[in-house]
Amino acid sequence: MRLLRLYQTGPLAARVSGRCGMTAVVLMLVGGLLLSLNAPDSQAESPSAEAVLAQAISVYDAAKARGHAWVMTRDGLAKAQGLLDAGDAPAALVVAQQALETAEASLRQADIEAKSWQARVPK
Amino acid sequence: MLNRLMIMSLLLAAASLRADPPSDLKAFRAFFEQRFANIEIDDHRDGAYALDAAKREQWLSMEDFPPYEIAIEAGEALFAESFADGSGYVDCFENGGMGVKQTFPRFDVGANTVQTLELAINECRKAHGEAPLDYASETMGALTAYMAYTSRGETFAITVPPEGLAAYNEGKAFFYARRGQLNFSCAGCHVASAGGMLRAEILSASVGHATHWPTYRLKWEQVGSLHKRFNECNEQVGAEGLPEQSASYRNLEYFLSYMNNGMTLNGPASRK
User: Fold this and answer.
1) Which of A12, A36, A100, B237 is positioned for an S-S bond with B184, CB 3.0–4.6 A?
2) ipTM of this predicted structure
3) Which residues of B does the annotation mark as catalytic?
């Protein structure tokens, strides 16, 4: 306990925290520099609403072929397409991403249920 | 110990995969006999009205002037009409189509598919140069209502030949698999939770679910098919419905109807 108190309040603590603080500042600067260098590339790689919508439709179709399509995905795809047609790409991207997530969840459900249904059969 | 448990669960899983239709039927009935010890299995053909006295009383009052009666009369007239080639429905079914509903659906080995009564009606029409009927139409509802009426009191006798086992198993898998955003299966409501409440409604038992179709539902304001009801259930749990008479729904009807073997046909019926 005494040692701990000494570390927390004594000159050693000041020296250690001072070194840590400097290291943290350097790391933050380097990290920020790397992020700023990467920023233009990240923007270029961010998917378009059209691309996300196409991917969502593809996953939805796969779930539908297995009898596991969800109503909310179907509605989301229609809404995203409507927003795209109206020229509101940012809003379409948000809705298309949600549709993609629900489509992926429905496909996971199909995978899980392909095996787990048997556990529910009365024996 | 762990190894023994794993071996036992593997054996159980293998047994469920091997389960044949008669074993399924026995276990299915036994489940409901145990769950509803004071209700005869055959009484479940009345659905939720077998489980609640007050609801049954209201329903019986409605049956004094059954709303499906008009459909039966219309169906009788439609059934008697001749096709352009001079033939009619009477030529397409054994016993002239009277009292045959309890044998549908059946597995058509030649076509390698499940044949429901609705499908057989349209195949009959096509074979005689007539356009097929819309499965959701009032005409189809009336024809099947009349044919079901001529089968009232008959005992369900669905057969599964070896060739039909795959379709039966697909229907069985559909019945027990969860689907939709709410992650519900048919069995989740009508086996595991049968007799429980869903808001103000009592969940009926699945045994007897196929005995009374087509059915006049007050919310539909017409006679509709079992497949229409499948769609309603699916959409309620957030799953996209399938077209009436799709292979998946026919297989599901095949499984459900087999689970009604030994029960009395009581269609057409009325429901809220």
Assistant:
1) B237
2) 0.86
3) 233
Q: In sequence order, which residues have a C-beta less than 8 Å from that of residue B36 and are 6 or more positions away?
A: B44, B51, B194, B195, B205
Cβ B102 vs Cβ B151: under 8 Å:
yes
Q: Based on the structure, what is the number of domains in chain B?
A: 1
Of A68, A74, A102, the CB nearest to B179: A68
For residue B74, give its domain range.
20-272
Q: Could B239 and A122 be called an inter-chain contact, meaning their C-beta atoms sit closer than 8 Å?
A: no
As a three-state string, the secondary structure of B68-97 is: CHHHHHHHHHHHHCECCCCCEHHHCCHHHH
Give the residue on B whose Cα is nearest the Cα of A60: B240
Are A59 and A13 within one domain? no
Residue B120 in domain: yes
Q: Give the closest of A72, A74, A109 to B179, CB-based.
A: A109
Q: Report whether B214 contacts B228 (CB < 8 A).
A: no
pLDDT tens, position by position, A79-100? 999 999 999 999 999 999 999 9
Interface check for B13 against chain A (CB to CB < 8 A): the answer is yes
Chain A, residues 1-60, CB within 8 A of chain B, namely none
pLDDT 10s digits, A3-37: 444 344 444 444 444 454 555 545 554 555 454 44
Bridge partners for B270 per DSSP: B216
Task: Check CB contact under 8 Å for B27 and A122.
Answer: yes
Answer yes or no: do A17 and A66 share one domain: no
**Domain span holding position A25:** 2-38
> Against a cut of 0.90, is the pTM above it?
no
CATH of the domain at B123: 1.10.760.10
| Domain shared by A112 and A53, yes or no | yes
Q: Looking at residue A17, what is its pLDDT? A: 47
